Amino acid sequence: MPVTTPAARAAAPPSDTAMPQDFGALVRQDPEIAGILLAEAGRQSSTLQLIAAENFTSPAVLATLGSPLANKYAEGYPGARHHGGCEQADAAERVAVRRAMSLFGAEHANVQPHSGSSAVLAAYAALLRPGDTVLAMGLPSGGHLTHGAPGNFSGRWFEFAGYGVDPDSGLIDYTQVRALARARRPKAIVCGSISYPRHPDYEQFRHIADEVGAYLIVDAAHPMGLIAGGAAPSPVPYADVVCATTHKVLRGPRGGMILCGVELSERIDRAVFPFTQGGAQMHTVAAKAVAFGEAATPAYAVYAHRVVAHARALAAALEDEGFEVTTGGTDTHIVVVDPGPLGVDGRTARERLMAAGMVVDTCALPYGDARGMRLGTAAVTTQGMDEDDMARIAALFGAAVREEGDAGALRAGVRALAEGNPPYPG
After folding, report:
1. How far apart are CA 192 and CA 128, in angstroms?
2. Are strands 241-245 and 256-260 parallel, antiparallel or unpaired?
3. Which fold, 298-418?
4. What CA–CA distances, in Å, run from 88 to 14, 73, 94?
5. Annotated catalytic residue 367
6. Going by C-beta distance under 8 Å and a sequence separation of 6 or more, which residues neighbour residue 302?
């Protein structure tokens, strides 16, 4: 029962405290924004979400994001805040840190970064100085903006050298990585990408970094959820610093985190606050704690392995549809395909897929100048789809790119598959 009178509110136990999550209040206060949110809910439930960086959080995570912690200013760290009234904020952050350390076997965790890019910025700030040389995957091979893009802080403040992949296999060329490291003597080596569907060899990266006296920074934004579920190898034993996001496969709120050893913990914490950020978003920090708790369960481990199985099934089915699958498959949730054999490039293919209700990204391909497409299976797996559904998705995907059949019927097929597997079943 809602608490409605002052006397009732005073007598109510903490568990009965009214929470400001009444959607009806938003409808009454701001119908324009309420309409936008409802429309977005409709879009997500009637189309197929195949963007590798997206997923559906749990209702518990969503509830935490809309909690009273959204009102709290909490600059600093637990026990050393710059604002009063942080007792519960401290408690929430301590839980998040403890759960992150336990989940990933790390000596230290900072859960305050607002995003994966913020986490990488803080890692660079802790370990580097402007003008230092950094070795990272080249952008055409799948490197992230924070790995040296000219328009990003990384490309403006540091000297980046980009390693690539073997042109035939599409796999990381470790001989090239070692040769570049010896020639450029970087202060840090970054291992990670946004569109590499295979597991990096973290141990080999560690050896190369040690050989040239470089820090090893692993940008694990994409595989972190798989690592949490035991479906991908962990970089924690090898890296000096691990940066990650808390959404994507991990199914938490949009945000970042950093893992490191105790010897770098103070430098990392100071690089996050006060060097690169102000107050932490405490509702998001608490939601990260919820997600870490969910990821520590056996059910989540099953989910993570299903994500990979579904990606492999989708890759095989798309190959049967005539797409070229880079590296010949995947180890992760990511599938990168070239629609070139079907006579179109990635941008044209994306437009056709969007018209059919399939939401995808384009990405660089490790050869030539054409754009490919990067797909992910995290969201559709969260919805409960199975390997047979991956075959259905591939068939719809191929028909949309080839512009086969009736467009209305194709869109109806996509809608039926999406609505038959709602992200938040009623």
Report:
1. 18
2. antiparallel
3. Aspartate Aminotransferase, domain 1 (3.90.1150)
4. 13, 12, 10
5. no
6. 229
Tokens 């897929």 correspond to what residue?
A: 353
Judge residue 115's burial from the number of C-beta atoms within 10 Å of its C-beta, 0-12 exposed, 13-18 middle, 19 or more buried.
middle
Both structure tokens of 312: 């492999």
Catalytic entry in 245, 276, 362, 381 = 245
Strand, coil or helix: 18: coil
Domains 68-295 and 298-418 share a fold: no
Query: For the domain bounded by 68-295, which CATH number is listed?
Result: 3.40.640.10
Residue for token digits 């050393």? 80
Complete DSSP assignment for 329-365: S-SSSEEEEE-GGGT--HHHHHHHHHHHTEE-EEEE-
- Answer yes or no: are the C-beta atoms of 58 and 287 closer than 8 Å: no
231 burial via Cβ count (<10 Å: 0-12, 13-18, 19+): buried
Eight-class DSSP state of 165 = B
Query: Which member of 73, 132, 159, 402 is catalytic?
Result: 73
Contact 69, 83 (CB under 8 A): no
Q: Which of 93, 219, 345, 389 is catalytic?
A: 219
The half-sphere exposure of 109 on its side-chain side, counting CA atoms within 13 A, is 25
Catalytic residue selected from 75, 90, 319, 324: 75
For residue 288, indicate whether it is catalytic.
no
| Each residue's pLDDT tens digit, 52-87 | 999 999 999 999 999 999 999 999 999 999 999 999
206, 254, 350, 411: the active-site residue: 254
* pTM for this predicted structure: 0.93
- Kindly name the residue from 72, 198, 248, 288 that is annotated as catalytic: 248
201 is catalytic: no
Answer whether 48's CB lies under 8 Å from 417's CB.
yes
Nearest to 158 by CA among 114, 207, 78, 215: 215
Active site residue 254: yes
Q: What angle do CA 309, 420, 232 make, to 5 degrees?
A: 20
The angle formed by the CA atoms of residues 393, 394 and 397, to the nearest 5 degrees, is: 85
User: What ranges do the domains of the chain cover?
Assistant: 68-295, 298-418
> What are the pLDDT digits (tens) for 266-308?
999 999 999 999 999 999 999 999 999 999 999 999 999 999 9
73 catalytic, yes or no?
Answer: yes
